[in-house]
Amino acid sequence: MGPPSSSWRSASTFQGLRCWFTDVPSAVRGKPSWLLASCRGCVPAERCIPRTCGSEDQILCLVLGPWRYQLEDESAHLDEMPLMMSEEGFENEEGDYHTLPRARLTRRRGGLEWFVCGGWKFLCSSCCDWLINICQRKKELKARTVWLGCPEKCEEKHPRNSIKNQKYNVFTFIPGVLYEQFKFFLNLYFLVVSCSQFVPALKIGYLYTYWAPLGFVLAVTVVREAIDEFRRFQRDKDVNSQLYSKLTVRGKVQVKSSDIQVGDLIIVEKNQRIPSDMVFLRTSEKAGSCFIRTDQLDGETDWKLKVAVSCTQRLPALGDLFSISAYVYAQKPQLDIHSFEGTFTREDCDPPIHESLSIENTLWASTVVASGTVIGVVIYTGKETRSVMNTSNPKNKVGLLDLELNQLTKALFLALVALSVVMVTLQGFVGPWYRNLFRFLLLFSYIIPISLRVNLDMGKAAYGWMMMKDENIPGTVVRTSTIPEELGRLVYLLTDKTGTLTQNEMVFKRLHLGTVSYGTDTMDEIQSHLMNSYSQVHSQAAGNTPGSAPLRRAPSSAPKIRKSVSSRIHEAVKALALCHNVTPVYESRAGVTGETEFAEADQDFSDENRTYQASSPDECGNMAREGLRTLVVARRALTEEQYQDFESRYSQAKLSVHDRTLKVAAVVESLEREMELLCLTGVEDQLQADVRPTLEMLRNAGIKIWMLTGDKLETATCIAKSSHLVSRTQDIHVFRPVTSRGEAHLELNALRRKHDCALVISGDSLEVCLKYYQHELVELACQCPAVVCCRCSPTQKAHVVKLLQQHTGRRTCAVGDGGNDVSMIQAADCGIGIEGKEGRQASLAADFSITQFRHIGRLLVVHGRNSYKRSAALGQFVMHRGLIISTMQAVFSSVFYFASVPLYQGFLMVGYATVYTMFPVFSLVLDQDVKPEMAMLYPELYKDLTKGRALSFKTFLIWVLISIYQGAILMYGALVLFESEFVHVVAISFTALILTELLMVALTVRTWHWLMVVAELLSLGCYVASLAFLNEYFGKSLPESLLAMWHLMFFIVTS
């Protein structure tokens, strides 16, 4: 008997999955027969799987459709899919699911409860997103047909081929900079207070006491932003103004990069940057192919082979491109830089010629031609190119310390309002009480000191100067001076591999022949074996005279002779010498130039000008225990018929439009059978200097390191082992390739069952998992001691950084050296660029630029740590300086019948915030609790900084209590001990205040610097000297009051 129909609630309906919940008594729970009988019959009963849910009295019926959980609806709640479902459950539909852990089920709120508990935020954000989409509606990207040399035939308007990295224009610069400044409560509060002084009834002091500090901060910010914006404008102008040869009916013409249009035929010379995405039509190389460097696109420094369209390559001359009627059909612009689908069609032939286009026929923008001269037809320009689509817009980075100080500022503002209300209440709301309320707000406005921002900005500039002047990390450049303390709060470090951890220099380490292995110390034996082998071959060739009979093979009936070591080495080395991707590149001598139609091979063949460029081979992962990149070398002899059959099937597979990659791989796999094993080679990718100790230091500092690379899985795994990012005894879980939700589900379960293992995952699998199990994947990955993401596109790198920020709330740092790392560097809270072989693009886009990876250790554990602790101490001391004088003002007003009269006016307030106390307080930027050597020796000291204990509400409240106590003691002491000299209470209390601040700075310092002593003496001297000029405030009889100095010193010491 089933439950009443009214108790059923349809929770949600998905494609391939339907769920119902029902409340049942515990007596019948766990009986599949009853549950199957109660099902609505939407699918056959044998596929209805009972599943215990999070509630004790609920059963979840999961109905498996033929798609095996391939949910296409991204809005499906992740927790409604039980993650801990066993692998056997997917393979056997009749498995016992009651033994599995219970799935998590989130109870959905509804109605008013949902609105109060966060629904209003969702509604507001949805409305804002809708308005933004309406105002900034993006044009839908579509596939296109591009006619060769005919831009006017384009059916749609395409974007200009210009690069723009500027954040503002002429009209938005001032509003944009002001918005970035006044979106923080601290600056907005200063602006309101300063503007209030234009109202006569609210005027407290002189205008310059409010507007001078605020104007100084704004002027510095505007000038700094203007300089940065002008530099970005100059860099964009240089790139957009580069000249290229455009092929027209009348010949070649020079055009700027920004004037190139879709359909133009562009000629790109050797070592010239490709200005836009193009289809490769023709090259000066006789082979019909060329090499390009893609280090600024995917981070790989090995050259990529590109093949010209055979139909256009066979044309006799360049001008014949305009004598044919041909077009290129290209897919819509997309992010993937490793794939392309299109067709080339020539219509003026009978029958028309159709040629399939793939990634090997493309020339992406921001790559560089490495050999020959190429001609291509432009298919994507501007923001539709692969490089621009994989580059995120730069954001204004704000440090966590600034956000914390902003929160403390809000708390101080609430205290300010509360204190003003109390004063007006005790006053009895006499007269225009609202005016008195505003006057009290202005009197106590120093609770939030306007000098806080000035001191912090100057301190950050000092930290940046110290980093750049550190002799232990030469070449360091601070490009973003607003976030140096972020280097002391990092929890996740995401680094590139090629050029960042490695030098990208391969060293041949081992040759294994099965029974014997040769290393670097025995390479001379290989050389001697080769000399013996070739000498035997030459002697046999010399003995085989023209008149003698040729050598014949031994009869087949003769027994097989085991090959000697020399012959095996000879065959192995010959295979390595013949089958490789090493390409000789010929550099022309000085004064030797050639036309674009001449092949490079016709210019210079001398060994003096020859270099070699190798393309990364396919590695064998199971032989990489020593961190070597390994390669198995084998051979197979083919007959003429076998080769012809393979060539025809291979050519047919390459012309396929659908599943081309799979078909080509199947044909190649059919050839790689019954092969003779020759040798196994081991190559080491040289690491940068001190990479291993640097990574160990960062791990001891509590920083989790992730490696994001565009390289292959095996290569990334080898580097992770050799760099000790993953220890040799540590287990590595290689995330298998997944394409559906069900496969991702099983792999995540397999990862969850592993403990203390490093994770290696590819970009494709990462994309699938993030689509369905974003939260679960990030949660599991964060538990791993190390994570390696291979085959990552630039956009995926940035996406991983943003996921860590959203799901963990921790500070992230991205390190890279290539153009493909720019998006990741800009997305991270702190970006570090390394000037390397891949150019300076990452270095220019980063917040901090270094020359070697090992400099990161000192940059973080020394400079980052000092910057954070110094900024925290400086910020709290400046707030203490404002709180103590506001407390004295409150005591003064309460003694004099709650009058809204200022205690200190004019220059006294300006001098208190500047010459009297600024130098000693600012000298805290030189303070340090431990020496740099100790910080490097004990990186565990860094780990405590991530908890934010140097600046927290606890430390803030301690400083508030200290300020209230000192302010009360100073003011009441001046009033009580100097009652007979009441006319000098202002001078006495102000002198005690200055001396107290100087003593507090001296007591706070942990390591004295000679500049600190100078600052203390200079401030004290300035105050003593100013007594002679401040008769307006202190009176002429001030020296007589100083006779009671012992009274003054007594309550100063008491405070």
From TrEMBL:
Residue positions binding Mg(2+): D496, T498, D817, D821
Gene Ontology BP terms: endocytosis; phospholipid translocation; retrograde vesicle-mediated transport, Golgi to endoplasmic reticulum
Pfam families (UniProt xref): E1-E2_ATPase, Hydrolase, PhoLip_ATPase_C, PhoLip_ATPase_N
Subcellular location: Golgi apparatus, trans-Golgi network membrane; Membrane
Family: Belongs to the cation transport ATPase (P-type) (TC 3.A.3) family. Type IV subfamily.
A cellular component annotation (GO) from this entry: endosome
Gene: ATP9B
Repeat among keywords: no
Its EC number(s): 7.6.2.1
Active-site residue numbers: D496 (4-aspartylphosphate intermediate)
Main localisation: Golgi
Domain spans labelled P-type ATPase C-terminal: 844-1037
Residue ranges with Polar residues bias: 538-547
Keywords, ordered alphabetically: ATP-binding, Golgi apparatus, Lipid transport, Magnesium, Membrane, Metal-binding, Nucleotide-binding, Translocase, Transmembrane, Transmembrane helix, Transport
Translocase in keyword set: yes
Positions that bind ATP: D496, K497, T498, F605, R629, T709, G710, D711, R791, K797, N820, D821
Name of the protein in question: Phospholipid-transporting ATPase
One term of GO molecular function: ATPase-coupled intramembrane lipid transporter activity
Transmembrane residue ranges: 208-227, 411-431, 437-456, 878-900, 906-926, 956-976, 982-1003, 1010-1031
Domain P-type ATPase A, residue spans: 252-386
Essential cofactor(s): Mg(2+)
Reactions the enzyme catalyzes: ATP + H2O + phospholipidSide 1 = ADP + phosphate + phospholipidSide 2
Boundaries of every P-type ATPase N-terminal domain copy: 155-211
Class in the EC hierarchy, top level: translocase
PANTHER family, sorted: PHOSPHOLIPID-TRANSPORTING ATPASE IIB-RELATED, PROBABLE PHOSPHOLIPID-TRANSPORTING ATPASE
